[in-house]
Amino acid sequence: MTEEAPRVSTGSEGLDDILGGGLDPSRLYLYEGRPGTGKTTIALQFLLDGVKKGERVLYITLSETERELRLVARRHGWSLDGVDIFELVPPETTLDPERELTVFHPAEVELSETTKLIFDQVDAINPTRVVCDSLSELRLLAQSPLRYRRQVLAVKHYFAQRNCTVLLLDDLASKGEDLQLHSIAHGVVLLEQLAIDYGAERRRLRVMKMRGIAFRGGYHDFTIKRGGLVIHPRLVAAEHHTTFVGDFTSSGNAELDQLLGGGLERGTNVLLIGAAGVGKSSLALTYALAAADRGEHAVFFAFDEGSGTLEARARTLGLPLDEKLEKGSIRFQQIDPAELSPGEFAANVRRSVDVDGARVVIIDSLNGYMNAMPDERFLVLQMHELLSYLGQQGVLTILVLAQHGLVGPMETPIDISYLSDAVLMLRYFEVNGTVRRALSVVKKRSGDHEKTIREFRLTKEGINLGPPLVGFHGIFAGSPTYHGEDASLMPVGMHERD
Prior knowledge:
Elements: H1 13-18, E1 28-33, H2 39-52, E2 57-61, H3 66-75, E3 83-87, H4 111-125, E4 129-133, H5 135-142, H6 145-160, E5 165-170, H7 179-184, E6 187-194, E7 202-210, E8 219-225, E9 228-231, E10 248-249, H8 254-259, E11 264-265, E12 269-274, H9 280-293, E13 297-302, H10 307-316, H11 321-327, E14 330-334, H12 342-354, E15 358-364, H13 366-370, H14 376-392, E16 396-402, E17 422-431, E18 434-444, E19 453-459, E20 462-468, E21 472-473, E22 481-482
Parallel strand pairs: 1-5, 1-6, 2-3, 2-4, 4-5, 12-16, 12-17, 13-14, 13-15, 15-16
Antiparallel strand pairs: 6-7, 7-8, 8-9, 10-11, 17-18, 18-19, 19-20, 21-22
Helix pairs in contact: 5-6, 12-14
């Protein structure tokens, strides 16, 4: 049995992960995408990875000059020393007003002569990795689809006789997909750049074809930063599972744990739902602080407010957040949904768990996270994968969702309660001209819980829960009526936080 040759790295850790290890060696691959999608950058990463391994590599350019390539590399902090660059662009190109052509072809030679120059250069250098940028110039020289296909086939057959892995770049200048070219290439990777209505552009990648290689399908978000393309493979929860003990995680508040039937179990998620300002973030924060007190690591992803606001609220409640942030037991990260793609956010959460060892993850709020998505359906699908992954890692996940309105009937911008293992509802209600807060567990899959509604307060001593609100009706409707004989409301104190 012939031993399988080791894979060739693409130069991108993310793309290697998508492909299950990299590319098959001595094959021809196609990277295609509109201008500005990052083809040249990821192609240079492929060659530079070869240079690091002591290989001879060649960049054949028909569209950019060597000077332009070195400028791209310099801005990424790279040196192209060790990369052979063969430039087929004429040094000076001028327009001739007496001719009907508006631009000259990239090389003032026939197609066959151009490919011969490429073959001669490869013969002289004998590289193990080659990038040809771009096929659009060869397509222009061919002038007919049949001649172009024959020439690309000739290129493929030539490299098939050599120990050489080849990347062909195509900027999709022709109309529609070039399916003939797809059939010739051993693998095809599509890079896209999407303009959304507001915020930074989004880039994503899809492996359209890869012969003999099992790859992760679908779209994968990526960004172009100094240092190259950072690709975030689509999260598939089924690929990650860790054995853990599903014990209770305390909130640090005995009454709240009692309301939850002992507490929230590891590997589950809880949805805190209620009006703005009712105390959802403060309640979530108590779980992060309790985790830090146990010596665990917690991460607070904030879409809606900055660290200053959260720290000020914690000081008002007498919670030692500043101390935990300084020690690093709690990490706060502000998220701008206009600048961060959902795939990048999922990769950030995964890194917090896999690398930093986070045991409690708070996402505040889903309303802000939803703004990062062009379509609500995809939000639910991605959140399902993310929650499944966190659950399999034994992480307690706390989700915050703000409802529309303050009192009375309320609407939820998105229904994600069916994905939640537990749901805590927080509501304002009015009694005798004062605004009060009520809390109840309306769902808990993993065990029993109190069915009562309790009043709670945010005080300088933290969160205080009162006895069950007996004799009241319509508390969650915001207009309660009292039918009992003994009042069950908490006494009005001076230390309540507004």
